[in-house]
Design a protein that fits this description.
This protein is about 5% helix and about 45% strand. Strands 88, 91, 96, 97, 98, 101, 102 and 104 form an eight-stranded antiparallel beta sheet that branches. One of its GO terms (cellular component) is plasma membrane. It is found in: Membrane. One of its GO terms (molecular function) is calcium ion binding. Its main location: membrane.
């Protein structure tokens, strides 16, 4: 049978799945955002189908996009800005990397369109708009148009305008679309001369962006729209009639609210005649005298004055002026008659009034006096001034026989001017007897109900004269209408009804006169007594009464007093007061029967009864009694005794979101049962309005929104409002709940689903239920969302519930194949929709990955925060630290640490090594991250904590048993959701197992076996014990169990030494230095020989035994691990008095450690097993900082616990450490050092603790410690010098087999170069010291180099 293998030629080009690709992306997506997955296939075999992708036209990507060369995934690499470039045309090449005959490639065009995001704010065309507007402009007239532009497009660039401040009077409106500003209410220059409007330009994006910096200055231009107004009107003034020409009488003033010429006034007089003696100054308004004044001719002047402005057209105002001319004494008195004639009887009594004369003075307030200046013979007459007249009286008796005629000259004078008249008096003869009444006084009694016409009494008089001088006539001196007297008979009769209540008595003066010349008379008095009859009802003083009283008046407070009178007398006229028939305000009032004072009975409440209508009665005591009612109205005066009352102490107000800023969105009112000023309520917001969101009208309670109310920003505001009716206040909590409007698009960002699929033979844990939801939400809470896959899910790998957005995985994914699928998901609320990319990543988690994984701990971190958005940063950081692509790092678990108090997240992952396709081992990952933890913190921006302790460090096993950590993994955990990631974790479950290791035995592993008992080392090799085994110390040319080396086969990748009982294989990856040496080997008979390259490699195996340590350097080796005993030896050389030689602790720097330092020239060991520290300090005279080589040896062991019978029962609590320096007999120094002369080159320390072992899980560090934030328990952190010959458990350690090297170099540059040139002459022996050399010269020579003969 012949098998023919056909070798593939690279004869096929890669083929893209599509002829061209078109994709859209929203601007401003984050860097690294996946856009499009390109796939090209090649039917050639894998070596010729290893496709790599790249951009052909790299410049066309504008540093915005990058393509993954392996997967073909195009992602963003920089900011995406549609305003800079909206469309990209890229050319992608797929190269198959073929070799025979050469690589082949294919290209495809990719068109990427950038969708607009609302990321630009509208910008106004001008910083400030200025316009001048006449104040009489008609409403709804356009005065200005503002414009703003937005660099976005479509709705995002659609700008709407509104006025946000400066329009408190509502004078202007702005068209929200065009920006046209109109006057909508009359302007008034005199009220406001300039308006500063702040304009907002807001686009229609979601969410909208706005620019509030637009300013419009509207300057109002004055017009003549105000007529002048006089300061006071009418104008009234007085002026003396002798005022001179030009005298200022009154200042007429008017004001005009206009401005400039529109307010300059001119005055003129109106309604005057040509002879009006006044003029006005047209500019100043002063009225002055322009002609003579005469009060006696014209006392008052009435005319008008007009004030007219200089506006166009001009406006005017008029006012009336009244000027009163005041008198001066410029007229003499004048008698009304020049001649008077009178007759006077000679028996006229002295003092008799004879005649009154009258003079008139046209001047006002003139005082006229009268004098008799002539004709008064024997001074028989006198004159006096009474009431402006001159009364002439008889001053001395007359005598008809001496003078029968007088002509008196009477003068009237006003003290300055005078006038005369003449009075002619003729004297006549006398009547001798007078009439005489029979009685000087008459008294008569009569009932008031006496009928009219009846005679009351008859009186009579007698006269002794005869004739006419004796004829008597009777007169009533006073006119009393109730009575009359017969002039001839003297009978007095009743002429009108009498009323006792009007008048009780009448006194009539009756005169009897004769008819002589002169007449003589006698007078008598008649007293008529009227008797009372009960004929009058009481009469109230007022037809009705009104009273007021405060509602807080105490009981029995006087309200008012009513009063009634009864015209009757005595008991008929005595009045009492009462309430009857329940007309006393339901008992709220009482009345005092005698005084009529109405009082309250109890406290009143105006809010229950504001006005009382009462009826009181006045009753007399006559028989029968008479009564009179009166209406009384009592008004209860309000007292502010009721606080305002809100509808409830806590209530809701519903307000639609997006209400116009400055509009009234609600009205909150309270009621006050009081009235008037006591019921006036003032409102204010006292809590919950910081910052100022609402403004409340102090009087109406109207609530005005000062900001855009957005339900999605804040759905509810809680304020406390206060209603005040001083001093009473009331408060209420108001929940202002916004009513949601569908004004927001759903929010959905790109997200990924990381499905860690751990397929094991033990169980199938494929997630068949809901794994999570599409991370979309709608700020509008009332919206219902609908979810669909737009494209990319044609195979239905993901199943979405269209109404809930719940996601499930298809059973098609239940396999062991990885997958990356990009899909577009659309979410809509029925009006708005949004589309985002969903990337499904299926990662197959294998047992190998889990076995080579570690868990790091992140501080102040939790699952959701880590997944969004810090997952990518963590991957970048780990990739940087491990120098491996981030695609080769596999995070399979994130889990909150529940064993600590803070927020600590455990992240488990594995990683592929950069070359060779193998995974980093857990130990390698620990060592790398231990060294570079700060670098990882810096690269990932996450706080990485030290590693946690292994469960075995708690020493759960007995005696010398070894604890083995066992990890199991649970893949049944649910997905973890964050806003951008759904992550399926694989939870590690930690367990342990105890076993008795090699070198120990016993039922409870309590006894250690000395494995050197059988002398396993050959050819004179020395067997040295170590924990769990032994080490053979061999002679030269022997190794392993001290067997001789044999010839080796020629290998391409390793150099191997084979012996009868061992094998040693050196690999390139772990021992690069030695591999380079073995590359130059020459195999000879019976063995091999390695030719070592330059660089400090030493024969026979090209190892490094010596290293130089500059400042701040160190080298790291695998740690000493968990130990019951160990030995360590090391040589060093330094001239520094202090330094750190070695340190081995735990990965988290807790508890156990072993450290060797040089302190002040002496070596010091410090160690701890977790509970305390012990210092071991030998002493070497002269110290170790002399530049010479010194050797230290450490022996550590746990004393076995021995029973009383001498049986070993496992480890004890005592841990012993011995430190020896240079060639020193440790047993002698420890036991007899102080006795033989300060022999202290060795020292011992014993530490007692409950821990059994020394747990050194961290790396072994020589020469320093890394720059980590931990507080290492050492005094110094570095070493300057050289080290060589490191032995652990008697086995030499190749100093080139480090894990990490930080600045050290092979060899000791300060020690090994000076003697190579044989500087010592004449047979001198050269020895190297630090940085120089010295020569031991033979006898007869001296000097530094033995050149000088002695």
């Amino acid at each position: 049978m012949v098998a023919i293998a056909v070798a593939d030629r690279n004869d096929h080009d890669p083929v893209f799945e599509q002829g061209e690709y078109r994709e859209t992306i929203r601007e401003n997506v984050e860097e690294g955002y996946p856009i499009l997955q390109l796939r090209a296939t090649d039917v050639d075999s894998p070596p010729n189908a290893n496709i790599r992708y790249r951009f052909v036209n790299e410049r066309a990507a504008h540093a915005v996009f990058e393509i993954d060369p392996r997967s073909g995934l195009i992602t963003t690499s920089g900011p995406v800005d549609r305003e800079k470039m909206e469309r990209y045309s890229l050319v992608v090449e797929a190269d198959d990397q073929g070799r025979e005959p050469g690589p082949r490639s294919a290209t495809v065009k990719v068109y990427i369109t950038v969708l607009d995001e609302n990321d630009n704010t509208p910008q106004f065309s001008e910083k400030r708009y200025i316009v001048q507007v006449r104040e009489d402009i008609r409403p709804h007239t356009e005065i200005l148009r503002v414009t703003a532009t937005d660099l976005d497009k479509d709705n995002n660039a659609l700008v709407h305008y509104n006025i946000i401040s400066g329009n408190s009077r509502g004078q202007f409106s702005i068209d929200s679309v065009t920006g046209e500003i109109q006057v909508v209410a009359p302007l008034d220059f005199e009220v406001e001369r300039e308006y500063a409007l702040r304009i907002r330009a807001q686009d229609a994006g979601r969410p909208p962006l706005s620019n509030n910096t637009g300013m419009a200055s509207i300057q109002v231009v004055d017009i003549n729209d105000h007529a002048p107004i006089f300061v006071s009107t009418p104008f009234q003034i007085s002026v003396l009639e002798n005022a001179p020409l030009g005298h200022s009488v009154i200042h007429i003033q008017a004001v005009d609210a206009d401005y400039g010429e529109n307010s300059r006034l001119e005055y003129k007089l109106t309604g005057i005649s040509a002879d009006t003696p006044f003029v006005v100054n047209s500019a100043t308004g002063w009225i002055t005298v322009s002609g003579p004044l005469d009060r006696e001719s014209v006392e008052h002047y009435f005319f008008g004055v007009e004030a007219r402005d200089h506006g166009s057209p001009s406006l005017s105002a008029s006012a009336s002026v009244t000027i009163t001319v005041m008198d001066v004494n410029d007229n003499r008195p004048e008698f009304t008659q020049k001649e008077y004639f009178i007759r006077l009887n000679e028996d006229a009594a002295v003092g008799t009034s004879v005649l009154s004369v009258t003079a008139i003075d046209r001047d006002v307030n003139s005082a006229i006096t009268y004098q008799i200046t002539g004709g008064n013979t024997r001074n028989r007459f006198a004159i006096s001034t009474q009431g402006g007249m001159g009364l002439i009286t008889l001053s001395l008796p007359l005598d008809y026989k001496q003078e029968r005629r007088y002509v008196l000259t009477v003068t009237a004078s006003d003290r300055t001017l005078r006038d005369n008249c003449h009075v002619h008096i003729n004297i006549t003869d006398a009547n001798t007897h007078r009439p005489v009444f029979q009685s000087a006084h008459y008294s008569v009694s009569i009932n008031e109900d006496r009928p009219v016409g009846s005679t009351v009494v008859v009186i009579s008089a007698t006269d002794d004269d005869v004739g006419e001088n004796a004829r008597i006539t009777y007169y009533l001196e006073d006119n009393v209408p109730q009575f009359r007297i017969d002039p001839d008979s003297g009978a007095i009769t009743l002429q009108a009804e009498l009323d006792y209540e009007d008048q009780v008595t009448y006194t009539l003066a009756i005169t009897a006169k004769d008819n002589g010349i002169p007449q003589k008379a006698d007078t008598t008095y008649v007293e008529i007594m009227v008797n009372d009859v009960n004929d009058n009802a009481p009469q109230f003083v007022s037809p009705h009464y009104q009273g007021m009283i405060s509602e807080d008046a105490p009981p029995f407070t006087s309200v008012l007093q009513i009063s009634a009178t009864d015209r009757d007398a005595h008991t008929n006229g005595r009045v009492q007061y009462t309430f009857q028939n329940g007309e006393d305000g339901d008992g709220d009032f009482t009345i005092e029967p005698t005084s009529g004072i109405i009082r309250t009975v109890r406290r009143l409440d105006r809010e229950n009864v504001p006005v009382y209508e009462l009826t009181a009665y006045a009753v007399d005591r006559g028989i029968p009694p008479q009564r009179t009612p009166v209406h009384i109205q009592v008004t209860i005066q309000d007292v502010n005794d009721n606080a305002p009352v809100f509808p409830a102490e806590e209530f809701e107000v519903l307000v639609k979101e997006n209400s116009i800023v400055g509009s009234v969105v609600a009205q909150i009112t309270a009621v006050d049962p009081d009235e008037g000023p006591n019921a006036q309520i003032m409102y204010q917001i006292v809590e919950g309005n910081i910052p100022e969101i609402f403004q409340m009208d102090i009087f109406s309670g109207e609530l005005t929104a000062l900001i855009d109310l957005d339900y999605e920003t804040k759905p509810e505001y809680v304020i406390v409002v206060q209603a005040t009716s001083a001093p009473l206040v009331s408060r209420a909590t108001v929940h202002i709940k916004l009513i949601d409007q569908n004004d927001n698009s759903p929010v959905l960002k790109n997200f990924q689903i990381l499905f860690n699929n751990y397929v094991s033979n033990k169980s199938n844990t494929f997630p068949s239920g809901v794994i999570g939801k599409v991370p979309a939400y709608d700020p509008d809470v009332s919206d219902r969302l609908f979810y669909t896959f737009e494209r990319g899910n044609e195979l239905h790998l993901l199943i979405v519930n269209q109404s809930s957005g719940e996601l499930r995985l298809s059973r098609k994914l239940d396999n062991n194949r990885p997958l990356v699928a990009s899909m577009l998901v659309t979410v809509t609320d029925g009006i708005h929709s949004v589309t985002a990319q969903c990337v499904l990543r299926v990662i197959i988690i294998t047992e190998e990955m889990l076995a080579n994984s570690i868990t790091v701990r992140l501080e102040n971190m939790w699952q959701e925060r880590f997944l969004s958005p810090l997952l990518a940063a963590f991957l970048e950081g780990v990739a940087t630290v491990l120098a491996t692509p981030k695609e080769d790092i596999f995070i399979f678990n994130i889990q909150n640490d529940t064993d600590v108090g803070g927020a600590v997240l455990n992240v488990s992952f594995s990683a592929l090594a950069p070359r060779g396709g193998r995974y980093f081992s857990s130990e390698e990952l620990q060592e790398q991250l231990y060294m570079k933890r700060m670098a990882l913190t810096g690269a990932s921006m996450l706080e990485v904590l030290p590693f946690d302790d292994n469960v075995c460090l708690r020493e759960p096993c007995q005696n010398y048993m070894k604890c083995i950590s066992v990890l199991k993994f649970d893949s049944s955990a649910p997905f973890i959701a964050s806003p951008s990631t759904l992550f399926r974790p694989i939870h590690p479950i930690t367990g342990l197992r105890c076993r008795c290791p090699q070198g120990f035995t016993g039922d409870y592993c309590e006894t250690e076996i000395n494995l050197c008992y059988s002398n396993p080392c050959l050819n004179g090799g020395i067997c040295t014990r170590k924990e769990g085994g032994y080490t053979c110390v061999c002679r030269q040319h022997f190794s392993g169990l001290c067997s001789p080396a044999v010839a080796c086969p020629l290998l391409s990748h390793s150099c191997a030494i084979w012996g009868p009982n061992f094998s040693l294989q050196l690999k390139l990856a772990s021992h690069p230095a030695r591999w380079l040496g073995l590359q130059g080997r020459r195999c000879a008979d019976g063995g091999f020989r390695c030719q070592c390259p330059a660089g400090g490699f030493e024969t026979p195996f090209c190892e490094v035994s010596t290293r130089s340590f500059p400042p701040r350097s160190f080298v790291m080796f695998r740690g000493l691990r968990q130990r019951f005993h160990l030995t360590l030896a090391l040589s060093f050389s330094t001239v520094e008095p202090s330094g750190l030689l070695l340190y081995n602790g735990r990965l988290n720097e807790r508890h156990d450690f072993l450290a060797v330092e040089i302190i002040q020239g002496q070596v010091q060991l410090k160690y701890s097993t977790g509970e305390s520290s012990t210092v071991v300090s030998p002493y070497l005279p002269g110290g170790v900082s002399d530049g010479q080589w010194h050797t230290l040896q450490i022996r550590y062991y746990n004393k076995p616990k021995v029973s009383a019978l001498g049986v070993v029962q496992g480890p004890s609590k005592d841990k012993v450490a011995i430190l020896t320096v240079d060639e020193c007999d440790a047993s002698v120094a420890l036991q007899f050092g102080s006795e033989i002369g300060n022999y202290s080159c060795a020292a011992e320390g014993v530490q007692t603790s409950s821990k059994k072992s020394l747990d050194l899980t961290g790396p072994l560090l020589l020469g320093g410690v890394p720059n980590l934030p931990e507080n290492f328990p050492v005094t110094h952190r570095d070493f300057v010098g050289c080290m060589r010959d490191l032995y652990i458990d008697s086995k030499r350690i190749d100093l080139a087999s480090y894990i990490a090297n930080n600045g050290t170099t092979a060899g000791c540059h300060a020690k090994h170069t000076f003697c190579d040139s044989s500087p010592c002459k004449n047979g001198g022996t050269c020895s190297v010291s630090w940085g120089t050399y010295s020569c031991l010269c033979p006898v007869g020579f001296g000097g530094k180099d033995c050149r000088h003969r002695e």
